[in-house]
Amino acid sequence: MTKGQLVLETGEVFSGEWIGYRGECVGEVVFNTSMTGYQEMLTDPSYAGQIITLTYPIIGTYGINQEDSESNHLQVAGVIMNDLCEEPNHFQSQATVTEILKKHRISGLKNVDTRSLVVAIRKHGTIKGKLVLEKPFPDYKHEFILSDAKKLVQQVAVTSMVQTGAGSCHIVIVDFGYKKSMVHFLVNEGCKVTIVPYHYDIEAIKALNPDGILISNGPGNPSELQIYFPKIRAVAESFPTLGICLGHQLIALAYGAKTEKLPFGHRGANHPVKDLQTGKINITAQNHGYVVNRESVNESVFQLTFQHVHDNSVEGMKHKQLPITTVQFHPEAHPGPRDTTYILTDFVQQVKQLKEEYLWEKV
């Protein structure tokens, strides 16, 4: 049994037993409160560069399967948990969490006092941390150097165009770290889906003749991606567009709004969001550390559509003239409740309707 430690930049140290790959790592220490869905979390590209603390006390009970991964790799920098089940019991299980961590060279700790760790994160705000093998010298000086958003997005995004589905409605996903469940949903709605890298030239995107655009989720500080703001705005003004999570933030920034960092982020499957048109409360899946600053949104251009019940942060916007919609939460809901899957359905229906109107005008 190998001992390890999570060392925070504040000087606090949390001890546990080492699991996975025997290599030290640095990351932003965050926590997720979901009771299920650890496989989706570990493979979510939005977690790139982060050490994720899983607050549910027992992880691994249903193992790892081939269906629930959101990407082809584990994306987290590291993982921290309390109790780890090494003998999962589920008919789809094909590997344990320990096995998959070793396969993808991801380090972690188990038997950590995750409650105390979450209290520390809530006290200090999201902080940098380092997973280290136990050191014989307690005064060892640790460095906490993190990658910027450009490097993180480069790490998780596709490097060349990918196509799937065979529907009559063509959706292009501009990939900053997309989740596979988004693609599966669109394909099931009768769409042909083309995924292009975040740096894809706007003329190349137009040459694909998309009927609609989806700006994906992804990792990092959105304001560090300012080089792509003009392209995002140009694309959004050329085609019906939906922005999800990071995509929501990038569209807002492209129109002159600002973003700010939350104290410890929204990460979990039980975040209540209010629809500002109907007053209805939806329970949503979320994973983000930044939000759009409400005062910075030009409300003569964008109508605010959703807000978080707990802190009133901006959770959605809609352009008043153009078919541009954004949401901060994850309507595809993997993992999480499916209260807001209608947003993706409505987007596809809108795209199909606008396509029919365009074709009718050409006749």
From TrEMBL:
The reaction(s) this protein catalyses: L-glutamine + H2O = L-glutamate + NH4(+); hydrogencarbonate + L-glutamine + 2 ATP + H2O = carbamoyl phosphate + L-glutamate + 2 ADP + phosphate + 2 H(+)
Chain residues that bind L-glutamine: S46, G218, G220, L246, Q249, N287, G289, Y290
Keyword annotations: Amino-acid biosynthesis, Arginine biosynthesis, ATP-binding, Glutamine amidotransferase, Ligase, Nucleotide-binding, Pyrimidine biosynthesis
Carbamoyl-phosphate synthase small subunit N-terminal domain ranges (all copies): 2-132
Taxonomic superkingdom: Bacteria
Keyword Aminoacyl-tRNA synthetase: no
Record protein name field: Carbamoyl phosphate synthase small chain
Gene behind this protein: carA_1
